[in-house]
Design brief:
The protein has one domain: Rossmann fold (3-Layer(aba) Sandwich). 38% of the residues are buried. Helix 5 links the parallel strand 4 and strand 5. It is 31% helix and 29% strand. The longest helix is centred in the middle third of the chain and has 13 residues. The chain has a seven-stranded mixed beta sheet, with helices on both faces. The protein is globular, with a radius of gyration of 18 Å. The chain is of the alpha/beta class. GO terms for molecular function: methyltransferase activity. It comes from Solidesulfovibrio fructosivorans JJ]. Keywords: Methyltransferase, Transferase. This is Methyltransferase-16, putative. It holds the Pfam family Methyltransf_16.
């Protein structure tokens, strides 16, 4: 979809553009004692049903970008252990609505929130402006499997970006091209434990020192509402070589 309103437009114009395409509402999200108002599609399941009926037997472009994944929330909590320092920079890749980048900016990082879907960038920019984070956060289109932004960052974040094996090589090259030169620069990736990523970790460990942490959480089963224990993996990666 082409973006009808430039992302440099005022908040009210951006919000009108989102409302023209979706039934939306702001919902509070709290991480580490900080609450932000996040623009969400009001009924994501109903939207998927409408898309299915509209496309019939054809392929459906599911709005994965609009969902707040558990890995994003856990990565947001993990951020509270990172020091934003004086002007430390951060990029979130495959950001969707920008949960991690938004909370990083609220914590004090200078954050760039990136995605390839124009509506994800629209929602992220609205969330930035609505929460008063315009001085510390911005958005940009970036394909983390191919693009080069010509910048390096102190922290690179990504949640659920390891879902396709065919992008692993491009992703690794992107990380190496954009990780900063400071000794404490690092990549932090989070994913659901059931998503295997051994074909990424093997090559990654040749370029980065990788520390893994497994975090448990509970999520209600959508069918019966009962809480289920699940696991998320967080990888902290620091370059082995001085850039």
């Amino acid at each position: 979809m082409s973006q009808e309103v430039p992302l440099s437009a005022p908040l009210d114009e951006l919000l009108d553009a989102a409302k023209a395409r979706y039934d939306v509402r702001f919902e509070p999200v709290t991480i580490g004692g900080v609450t932000l108002q996040i623009l969400q599609i009001a009924d994501l399941e109903a939207l998927v049903d409408r898309l299915a009926k509209r496309t019939g037997a054809g392929p459906i472009e599911l709005p994965y970008w609009a969902k707040i994944w558990p890995a994003s929330m856990l990565l947001g909590h993990f951020l509270t252990h990172l020091d934003p320092g004086q002007g430390r920079t951060l990029i979130e890749i495959g950001a969707g609505v920008g949960i991690c980048g938004l909370f990083a900016a609220a914590q004090g990082f200078h954050a760039l929130i990136t995605d390839i879907h124009p509506d994800a960038l629209l929602f992220s920019k609205i969330n930035i402006l609505h929460n008063g984070l315009g001085d510390r956060a911005d958005v940009a289109r970036a394909d983390f499997s191919a693009d080069r932004l010509g910048r390096r960052f102190d922290v690179i974040l990504g949640s659920e970006v390891l879902y396709l094996e065919n992008i692993y090589r491009g992703l690794l090259k992107f990380l190496l091209a954009h990780i900063g030169t400071a000794p404490d620069a690092e990549v932090v990736l989070a994913k659901d434990f059931t998503r295997r990523a051994s074909k990424f970790l093997g090559p990654a460990e040749k370029e980065f020192q990788v520390a893994e942490r497994v975090i448990g959480y509970k999520e209600n089963n959508p069918e019966n509402g009962e809480p289920e224990r699940k696991l998320c993996q967080v990888y902290r990666m620091r370059p082995r070589k001085q850039i």
